Amino acid sequence: MANMTVFGAQWGDEGKGKIVDLLGSEVACVVRYQGGNNAGHTVIVNGEKHVLHVIPSGILHDGTFCIIGNGVVLDPFVFLEELASLKAKHIDTSPKRLFVSPKTQLIMPYHKALDAARESMKSADGKIGTTGRGIGPCYEDKMARIGVRAGDLKDKELVRRKIETALIEKNALFKNLYHIEEMDTDKVYQEVMAIAEELVPYIQDTTAIFYELQKQGKSCLFEGAQGVMLDIDHGTYPFVTSSNTICSNASVGAGVPAEYIKEHIAIVKAYTTRVGTGPFPTELFDETGRYLQQKGGEFGATTGRTRRCGWFDACVLRECYRICKPTTFALTKLDVLGGLDEIKICVGYVLNGEKLETPPSSAFEYANVEPVYESMAGWKEDISSCLTFEDLPENAKKYVARLEELIGVKAGFVSVGPDRNQTIRR
Question: What confidence score (pLDDT) does residue 47 get?
């Protein structure tokens, strides 16, 4: 099997965790290459639910190595909480199979405080829907070259100096702009170093680990978080996340050459959802929207926030294809559409009388597009026990075929239920 990326093709929450979990036993290593614990991957194995925020979904397979790459921003406290939760389920999370790049940026307590303070001061129409977990401020410090990296934890004095430097600016903001309590260098330092001893054994040269696996002829899977439309450059800016979510960022966020990654699997939900604010042309505010929300369990794995629901948007997938050129796609939550008499697909937009096939670059223009729909007949049958594509109702097969035409690649996987085993492979 070739090295591959698994990435979200829409606004996130497409079901990436399930597909990573499905393939996790077939690769030697799963690498998380961007984002932080603002993303959540829900995986159901034999009826048992696992929610992962920073640890790659491959951890659920014995013997599969897992890497948190340099492109991730890691909350060390959340990481240790997740370790404890997995250990309680008797899942091996030892430093012999789970590794953190020394170049991974650490989310510090002041990042979370700054994130929350900023969002609370914005007017309702100015909020971007941040989770308040310090992701953006941590990436800012990375680019400002004052961030604390995982490898720094091995040098206590370096950590103290970096915290002291970061708090000069942060405390000025806390005191004079946000009017909240300043943070003490010693207190933050003690809080972080109290857990350093637990984290340090996991810090390894992850690029060297990847190259060793390549020499052995083994394959790796690169796991993305969020979706293409939340990419900091290519998404609906400013209603985006703080990192590059497109699949080509896997090489940068993991520290490996792009030429080593041959396959790109786009995860595509059979309808569309979005969390937080920002344009969403196919959003439904009626009974159908509520039906999708309830049947699809559309509540955030990380935040519990209700997801906005709408019809499938082919314009979004055309943009995904232009930017990422997936080699195949995995269609998830097809079962949720069962029971609807009519299913609509957005095949284009109209903006000021002009027809568009892809989203406009401006989110403010995007908020004013009118979707152009085509309709297909739905199906009433329960497809959750279908084992092959041929087992699906005729109208379900027609729907998948139409999406393949619109996206431009074939569906290699079709999910008919939440469990690992409820996935048709083609």
Answer: 75
Residues belonging to the active site: 13, 41
Angle at CA of residue 356, ends 352 and 359, nearest 5° = 100
pTM, whole model, 2 decimals? 0.92
Whether 272 and 260 map to the same domain: the answer is no
The CA-atom distances, in angstroms, between 167 and each of 141, 174, 181 are: 11, 10, 12
Q: What are the phi and psi torsion angles at 308 (to 5°)?
A: -70, 140
Query: What is the span of the domain harbouring residue 252?
Result: 4-100+205-265
Residue 277 sits in the same domain as residue 220: no
Check: CB of residue 46 under 8 Å from CB of residue 419: yes
- Residue 98's nearest CA partner among 130, 122, 67 is 67
Task: Please write the tens of the pLDDT for every residue from 75-86.
Answer: 999 999 999 999
How many domains does the chain fold into? 3
Q: Is 62 within 8 Å of 36 (Cβ atoms)? A: no
Least confident piece of the model among 115-124, 391-400, 413-422: 115-124
Phi/psi at 232 (5° precision): -60, -30
